[in-house]
Amino acid sequence: MAQESFQERTEQATPKRRREAREKGQVAKSKEIPSLAVLLAGTLTLTFGSGFFYHQVTEVMRYYLGNAGLISVTQANMSGIALLALRYSAVVIAPLFVVLVFVAFLSNYLQVGSLLAFEAIKPKWSKISPYEGLKRLFSAQAAMELAKSVFKLVIVSWIAYATISGELKNLPGLLDSSPGQIQAYLFSITGVLFKRTCMVMLILAVLDYLFQRWEFEKGLKMTKQEVKEEMKQTEGDPHVKSRIRSIQREAARKRMMADVPKADVVITNPTRLAVALRYDAREMDAPMVVAKGSGHVAERIKDIAREHGVPVIENKPLAQGLFQMVEIGRTIPEALYKAAAEVLAYVYKQKGRGRNS
Fold it and tell me: Which pLDDT tens digit goes with each residue over 151-205?
């Protein structure tokens, strides 16, 4: 086993390995995609629902400011005021909250599908161990996440700087503009900044997803020994399977040998092959092969036949045809009817009784 640990992981993960990893919650997933999706969904919701949000906030402000002198805050009505404020806040926030939750769920679902991994939420000492926590904090994965965060911060800061610095020459002209014009200009600059930021974040999200998938596939790779061990567990140990097949063959051979005394004749090659035929006109449409074999098995069939008084007849073409064309327990094909009938007729004649048909 020590030698196995130094083997390179060169084999692609098997379906069983992938299934076990998924059950543990190990999937290829980028955190950047949900972040970008939530950002876009939140911005679009606020943009297209601006009229609704403006109306709701205005109503809240009008109520509280308009009744500021009439509302008396006492211990008795404190809970009522708090509930009213909560209701107004919920009306404003609920649509945005529902959209963000749905988009966050959908972006994760599109990456990993339906996944319920109880193994990932099972209580483990390693999750609360300070030592294990420090190891995760200073791990290569943590360093990679930190580097990505710093890189995103630098990129977004650079985009913001480049966008705003390009507009500095237009700022003096705003001194003569109306508040509405200034507001429209600021919205325009904000939109440009948002579009550029989202474009960069989209590129980063795609690259991060491809990297996470590559890293996930790399982590799932197996050594040749692991593949062999899994095949043994899935399909059974080849040595055990070979032993089982050997036992099954021996049992089938014993059953076959037990049927030889019931045969009407054994046809031989003369030395290499032996085929035992049985025919009962009341039960069968044609003679049936009840046993066959070559080499040692053929000799054993002939010995059992002689011990029980079953005639052993030499007929090389018929023996070869029966051996190659007919499985044990099956009736002979029509092409061999004539040759088999001649042999059986001879056997019946020797026994001094006629045919049953």
Answer: 888 988 898 888 888 888 888 877 888 888 888 888 888 888 888 888 888 888 8
Judge whether 331 and 286 are in contact, CB under 8 Å: yes
* Residue 121 to residue 140: CA distance in whole angstroms: 23
Q: Name residue 308's beta-bridge partners.
A: none
Contacting residues for 308 by C-beta, under 8 A, at least 6 apart: 260, 261
Phi and psi based region of residue 278 (left: phi greater than 0; alpha: psi -120 to 50; beta: remaining): beta
Q: Which of 47, 24, 33 is nearest to 106 (CA)?
A: 33
Q: Could you tell me if 254 and 299 are in contact, meaning their C-beta atoms sit under 8 angstroms apart?
A: no
Compute CA distances 175 → 171, 181, 182, 264, whole Å. 8, 11, 9, 119
H/E element, 104: helix 78-112
How far is it, in rounded angstroms, from Cα 208 to Cα 33? 9
**Hey, which residues does 109 pair with through a beta bridge?**
none
Longest alpha-carbon distance in the chain: 133
CA atoms of 88 and 96, how far apart (whole Å) = 14
Q: Tell me the CA distances in angstroms from 275 to 262, 328, 354, one per residue in order.
A: 13, 9, 22
Cα–Cα nearest to 49, from 96, 15, 3, 6 = 96
Phi then psi for residue 22, to 5 deg, are -65, -40
Using 50, 70 and 90 to split pLDDT, how confident is the model at 128? Answer: low
